[in-house]
Amino acid sequence: MSVVLRHRWIVLFLTGAIYLFARLPGLLALPLFNDEAIYLVRAQRFPAELQFTIHDGKFIHELLLAILVGLPWDPLLAGRLFSVICGLLTIVALWTGGRIIGNEASGIAAGLFYVCSPLAAVHDRLAIPDAMLGCLAGFVLAASLRFGSMPHPQRRDAAGVGALIALAGLVKLPGLFLFAIPVLAALLLPATRAERRRRAGLLRTTLIIALIALAALAPFNYGGAESRKVGALDLAQQIGRFSSNLALAGEWLALTLPLPLALLALFGLRAATTRRHVALLLITGGLLHLVFAALGSVIYPRYFLPAWPSLLLAAGISAAELRHERAIMRRIGLALLAATIAWGGYFTVEYARHPARAPLAAIDRRQYIEAWTAGYGLPELYATLRAEAAQAGPMTLVSPVHERVVHIGPMIYLSDDPLIQHTTVDLRDPDAAAQLSALAVHRNIYLALDADEVQAFDIERRFPDLVHIQAWHNPYSTMTLHLYATRKNGQHPERAPTLRR
């Protein structure tokens, strides 16, 4: 402890350096993910599609992305670097939380555990708002610990916590659930009932400040899209879904925290000096898991990132206090610590080198590696489209109404090519073939589709004028990207019989 106190800035700097060393390699190893594509293309067009951003309930993240994608480099790299910075700030938040409770060593340990967490290792490398939301959850936690333990909190202290929660809600609407953290801090940290009641009264200010920005955006249906993810609207069905969601949450917690670290966090309950803070942190992390399991119709591991700062700080406290344990318990704790570092180190190295070989949760493997949401083959598709435009002349790249990563990727990376225009046609429409023929009067027409869409739209039968140009197969699944075309005035391009892998 004394070493950390004397050299806190050096230790914090080294922790940040370890984090960057763990995160920056392999930053672009995973291809463009569908959600990243949505946020990046809206950022490129900002503010033209601001209504969709507001409806999605992810305002601040996309606002900052709009600034970053204007820089002269790969927009995906810019978005992912921003998430890395958010992860770095999460480490600062964990250190701040440890310092507030008078145990800086626990905050540093929690930061190192964050580096080792497989869930963080994946989502700090994706240009989606979850890393930013996890970062704000860390600062909400630190501010709530201060609010719950300071001798004489004032209204401005409660307002500060509310402002952080408001920011979290503007990053992603479920950030409002972080209001549970100051509530629990106010109820569990003060030693007397009078102090608990005093802080509970101040929480009215916290709630008002947290909601005021969202209330201003409410007339524009801020976060309306989130209603599709709330299964509790159908209460009877959700009661049956809750147990399966809870089982998934437990599985992901064991794999991505990971489990040895969760067990280590329980050690802090043994000592009277740390019991109150560790109990608060474990209850907070557990409650956030329960909320998402109870309300979600479809859940993903990344939804639980806001619960990680609480659990990691609890583990950090336990690790910092191992020296006070009896020999047998200290050895068990050190074994759990070694298992955490070994698992986290193995995952981090494998993910940086080859994401498909990393032991991802099954649902993450599907969405990031195997399904239509994964952008394997997109760089080759971009190159082919540019070459086709240069050789055959100006083209119109047609997308269906329900755009997926195979359509949005070219919008991002081919928007600077004057030979390529983008338009939308509802391929479900009975007259879709006639609409494509009308477009082909003026320019060459190209369609990039994934295998699911080729089947769903019955492309081969309903669009006989389209010629299959090329295909790119996902090396880790049966998913394939297909390129079709028809030349201006009905001329047919040459077929390419090869399947690119």
Could you walk me through the main structural features you see in this protein, from its secondary elements to its overall organization?
The chain has 23 helices and 6 strands. It has 501 residues and is α/β, with parallel strands linked by helices. A 6-stranded mixed β-sheet has the order 2-1-3-5-4-6. Strand 4 (467-473) and strand 5 form a beta hairpin. The longest helix is centred in the last third of the chain and has 27 residues, at 327-353. It is elongated. The model is unreliable at 495-501 (pLDDT under 50).
Throw out a few tags for this protein.
single chain; 23 helices; 6 strands; 62% helix; alpha/beta; 501 residues
What secondary-structure arrangement, pairings included, does this model have?
Elements: H1 2-6, H2 8-23, H3 34-45, H4 50-56, H5 59-68, H6 75-100, H7 104-116, H8 118-123, H9 130-149, H10 155-171, H11 180-188, H12 193-217, H13 235-256, H14 259-265, H15 272-295, H16 308-320, H17 327-353, H18 362-370, H19 378-392, E1 395-399, H20 405-413, E2 420-424, H21 432-439, E3 444-450, H22 451-456, H23 459-462, E4 467-473, E5 480-486, E6 499-500
Parallel strand pairs: 1-2, 1-3, 4-6
Antiparallel strand pairs: 3-5, 4-5
Helix pairs in contact: 2-6, 2-7, 3-5, 3-20, 6-7, 6-9, 6-16, 7-16, 9-10, 9-11, 10-12, 11-12, 11-15, 13-15, 14-16, 14-17, 15-16
